[in-house]
Amino acid sequence: MSQNPPALRPDLARAAIPDTARPGQPRIGMVSLGCPKALVDSERILTRLRAEGYAISPDYAGADAVIVNTCGFLDSAKLESLDAIGEALRENGRVIVTGCLGAEPEYITGAHPTVLAVTGPHQYEQVLDAVHAAVPPAPDPFIDLLPARGVSLTPRHYSYLKIAEGCDHKCKFCIIPDMRGRLQSRPAKAVLREAEKLVEAGVRELLVISQDTSAYGTDWKGREAKFPILDLSRDLSTLGAWVRLHYVYPYPHVRDLIPLMADPTNGLLPYLDIPFQHAHPDVLKRMARPAAASRTLDEIAAWRRDCPDITLRSTFIVGYPGETEAEFQTLLDWLDEAQLDRVGCFQYENVAGARSNALPDHVPEAVKQDRWDRFMQKAQAISEAKLAAKVGRTLTVLVDTVDQEGATCRTMSDAPEIDGNLFIDEGFEGLSPGDFVTVEVEEASEYDLWGRIRA
């Protein structure tokens, strides 16, 4: 069992798929970097390759070629992507690069001129073309079978469900719209069909993701529903699995989701992942973000009134250009009042192509670090108090892993990798990943819980 907080990067997955290749079957490896949205892209690429007769290699040595799905959001992420490409070249030698950093092919080939091909984000066909050129397919339709849920880089009992690509926001620190384009929502029928297949294949939790989940469907012309995310959430909640919403902007219509979350008879979890980013109105304006932090506190109060068990997760940026000590203190005061359940924080860094780079008064690195430390200290104290209040409560948890030491589980308040865990270290021998079990909470730390199974 492993304790939190994690390294705050649910962003590196390798295809560790036990897949015995038939004689002569070409094998492809995958390294996936970036956010869960990129992880879904990796799964789609591998599923397409699997359908064409390729086997998936769990290591470099057994692969005829390796795909590296890169992240290009921050300069630090770009360097990490270059390191991953370099490792794949050293270990295998035949590397195809795709993903967000692929939007800058000269940056990649300048560092690694021997890569076989570079394609941009969600360019599935170009990736397949590159694989075909490097490793020609050799399918056998009588032997090669595609798993019911496709190829997955997550455990069998949960899966990310991407409902849209791109973003219509113009935040000054972000280049996602430049890399992935404007909002493009998937048809609701396609999303539901995929969700149904996942649940039929044994998935117990659907993690709904996009760049702006609450804006889902608002790019459709002539749509009947003003806010299609409401109907989609309602339909997903009936499938018999947990449904967790990520990356939800606090538009007014989000309040219409809260009664559905408060209803324990459906699967929409009382959990909202909302990227607030900051609380001071002047900082938010410099970010080109909505600047109504006080009204946001009113919304939070209304959500908690209608759904007392709701869990609120968010991420923030400290050290944004021009951020003064007084503005940072406003953020700390806001956090005290908001009492968010789950909080992540990043120190601002320039991103090539972002408009925030040109802003005046960049904050020194030492000041950024100091503010990050102070922010996380406050966030940790809030988390510790909130978890302590759960001691003695009876909760339903989902089992993620079981080993000789115990079972690692998650409550409705915990998304995989980024939130806390609940550990069971007695009487866990009969549990398996994907089981739902009722526990009584006996102990709490800053980020995690411990409990015992209720008879």
How far from one another are the termini?
23 Å
The radius of gyration over CA amounts to: 22 Å
> So, the CATH homologous superfamily of the largest domain?
tm_1862 like domain
Main β-sheet: number of strands, strand sense, barrel status?
Answer: 6 strands, mixed
Say how many strands there are.
19
The name of the CATH topology of the largest domain is pyruvate-formate lyase- activating enzyme
On the 0 to 100 scale, the average pLDDT is: 89
User: Which structural class do you get from the secondary structure elements?
Assistant: alpha/beta
How many domains make up the 3D coordinates? 3
Please state the overall shape, judged from the principal axes of the Cα atoms.
globular
